[in-house]
């Protein structure tokens, strides 16, 4: 009897644990689904807010909608365009007295009459938008909410109209103008969400489900406008249902006893394996951290060694020449004045070299820290190359180098300043390592992966070992401290980081005494968003 009692307790315990596990899993599924629905709807609302702020912060919008309203322009660029391309159902423009003077709604919505006088919820939204206008020179902060007009529920976004080009807040009827976009939350939208994210029965519900099987749409006043409800998944319960027959079988005393032993042993084994895997992962993480620390320490040592030379050399010249000038070592006659002027020029050259070196180090730091922000646009390669050559004109003429740079008529999608820095570093290196009377060629062509720009020179070339390390920080093609090679070995490292930031590629083809060709590829046009 004690054995039977023990087995009965074990059976009850197993069933209780199974039921608790199923119930916990069901609750977790409800919580996860509620989070998913909230993320989808709120993300859609934030997207609407972003579009609203973008349009409100547009000079053409201010000029044609606020300053001198142009009905044709408004309908074509704000109303109709928003409906067809941004899935906006209602467009409102509110003057300073909270009266809508632009109302553009989808044909199947009969809401224009309700909007002639702005509903309190939209008045609150306009007030919040004006409060979030922010500094004049910055994009306005959009405000979003949910509203109900009769039986129709909308997500709404609003932003204050602002000039992009000047620090002035346009006004109409004594106050800032507000642009509002409304998007209807209807069964079509919810059906699409349900299909995309595998949510069964997603619909608008009249009341909140206290079990958490719904998502509340909160208005500007903090109260519920409507709720989204759905059919909750019950993976735990479904799993238990699928085990009905096996559970009947395991009611047998022997089978239950053996199954319990097996489950216990398997749990112990899995825990042992999990602990072993966790130990291996922790050991590997510690090894990686140690290696990273070693690399960082070596990089610091190399940096200090390199900088001690590259900073000390021009500093010694600056200090030496400035001391000669200060002490009037060669007297104060006309001949001495000529020498002093020459020393002053050398002091200026040394200072300019130090400034360039420090700028390069700061650029590397910004790139490595992810603080280098690209402002890409379509840039003419011919104009960029011409600008680069004009900046290097004096050096090119001093070395009597022959430059070949035929017009390509091509453009790239890049940050103009970053492209100029890439070209200056690459062409500057070609000039630096090409003997007087040599030649440099710059060409561009279209390839399947983008626009390729090749810069070739007839300089001393590089070994394969130098090519492999060329893009590393402080690499100077085999030159080290104490050589006559100018530069700190930072330029190519900056080039590689800038091109990577543009999602481009760069390679070096070179051999000793046969010159060098550096080819980089940049996109010709902006990358399409994922799924486009």
Compact summary:
The chain is an alpha+beta fold and 532 residues long.
Count of DSSP strands? 17
Coarse structural class = alpha+beta
Distance between the termini: 71 Å
Biggest β-sheet, characterized?
A: 5 strands, antiparallel
Instruction: Write out the strand line-up for the largest beta sheet, numbering strands in chain order.
Output: 2-1-7-4-3
Roughly what fraction of the amino acids lie in strands?
Answer: 15-25%
Helix content: 40-55%
Gyration radius, rounded: 35 Å
Number of domains as seen in the coordinates? 3
Question: Low-confidence runs (pLDDT<50, min 5 residues)?
Answer: 478-485
For this structure, the quaternary state is single chain
- Total helical segments: 15
Report mean pLDDT, rounded to a whole number. Answer: 82
Shape: flat
Organism: Thalassobaculum litoreum DSM 18839
Domain Histidine kinase: 306-526
GO molecular function: phosphorelay sensor kinase activity
EC number: 2.7.13.3
